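Weekly structure sync, notes
Attendees: PL (lead), two postdocs, one rotation student
Agenda item 3: pending single-chain targets
PL asked that the sequence for the first pending target be pasted directly into the notes so everyone works from the same version. It is reproduced below exactly as submitted, 243 residues in total.
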Amino acid sequence: MQLEQHLVVGNGYARNIWYLPGPADIQHRLCVFLDGEHYQRDMQAVPALAELLEGPTSLPLSLLFVSHVAPGEGAAEYEARRTADYTCNEGYARFTAEEIVQWATRRNPGIRPSGHVICGLSLSGLQSAFTTIRHPAVFSSCLSQSGSLWWLHGRSLDLGPTKAKFWFSVGDQETATQVAHSPQLYQKMSQIAGVEMAAENCRRSGGTVHFCKYPGGHDMAAWKAELPTALRWLSAASETGKP
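Predicted structure, written out during the meeting:
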């Protein structure tokens, strides 16, 4: 399975993307991964999903990984760019839901017009949940892996009702509080408490929620291990006729 690399520009953003096309003759969902380098390079998500995509019980999916930096940027800009883009950024959510998804649907006639999946980890797990709620006509399912949902605590951000499906996971060792991640990011509550808070809020707002507490910490190995199960659950839930 060979990834194609492209550049998507629009809505004030430019991002490299890595794209694995699904079938052009079968209607299927697009699965968008924020923090694309972490997923496709560090986590090796494509090999981890090989059986899901090609096994005897395979699901038709197109995968698209979005870079967490702009073209020409690198490690020096990494933290500032992720903080700006992934802390419930309305503009970046529109870029993802409009420019990124429309780029893929124009390229592959098999990609359905709506009901897609968006995935994120840590800080991008916050943005993936936010984008799902803000753009229900595009995304019906969200995977948030150890999402930095503590960022929402104490903020008057009205996310409104949702009918989407959410897979929230967090490690049972993610108990740290009062953590300074950067001058712009200070974590008062634990990762666990933030994820539990968001999961309960999504339930109360009408969403379908799967909450998973795995043994361990803020760990890519745990996120990689749950990927096939999480995406199968999110896709199967979407096939029941629910939004």
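Discussion points:
- The longest strand covers residues 13-20.
- The CA atoms of residues 27 and 112 lie 6 Å apart.
Action: rotation student to compare against the earlier draft before next sync.
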